Amino acid sequence: MEGAGCYGHNAADDVALDAVLLARAAGGRPVRVQWSRADEMSHAPFGAAMAIEIEADLDAQDDIVAWRHRIWSNGHAARPGRAVLPALLAATELKDPFPRYISTNPPQANGGGADRNSVPLYDFPSWQIESHRLLTMPIRTSALRTLGAQGNVFAIESFIDELASERGEDPLAFRLRYLRDPRAQDVLRRVAQRAKWKPQKRPGRGHGIGFARYKNTGAYCAVIAEVEGAEDIRVERLTIAVDVGEAINPDGVINQVEGGAIQATSWVLKERVRFDRNGITSNSWGAYPILRFTEVPEVVVELIQRPDSEPVGAGEAAHGPVTAAIANAVYDALGVRVRDLPITRERLIAAMELS
To answer: Is the pTM higher than 0.85?
Structure first.
């Protein structure tokens, strides 16, 4: 049956197995199974949590000479049908249950999982990446759109911004100095030109940059975010430059980038799974708020056409750069660096108390 799609892994296969098991017990009568909203929000798999530490060594001129990036995360892949053990929820609840499936990570050749986008695109003399897969799973995890890329790009681009600030250097110029890839340089320059970087400083408003090449092999994306931080953080505008090689359907590319940017804004400002020892507590839209239409920022996308280059996907290119750009804009507006997502009022206050 055709149904709603998703980026990642939802509960469609779990409810299908529920229906099969019930139909086998129903004496040949057809059954219809529909999970409630609370069921779905409590039992569908979630994106894995991530903790990331980054260190850099600087020389006497404050240039980066070494980079270390460490990740701790559950696995980001538990789709059914890809392993010997079944990954479906009801399989663990049978009379003779299968063991609970422990989420894995795709190999780097397929883009990686927790380590996706952990290798910096910047030209540092040396770097070391460590990815620690956690086997303890207090909640069920699997693929959420971008897998580990959002967390890694957020961490990398936040730290790059912090280093630029420590040096008193423009964050755009700082990035360009460490990029030799002309296509990477181009998306940054194009987005800066489109956003008229850097606008004059206004009280309570900030501007931030985020950049990445998705999976380090896909689309290039650079973002400049404008935020207003008088009360809660509000993203007013996202200016984006994207290079997907040859864009066969330019309007489709722009739609994908716009949608990803808005979803990432919701992740950055609103979304988080809450749970206690008894289970998931964020099992309604009231307990799991998402971005409202009235909060959607203006999104401007500049598509760089490269007809001589192979086309690559656009669907997940914007999430990491948008996340980082918003966080860096918050720092520009308020002078505090928030290192935990989402960027809520409580986390802003906690960051101010630490600064």
So the answer is: yes
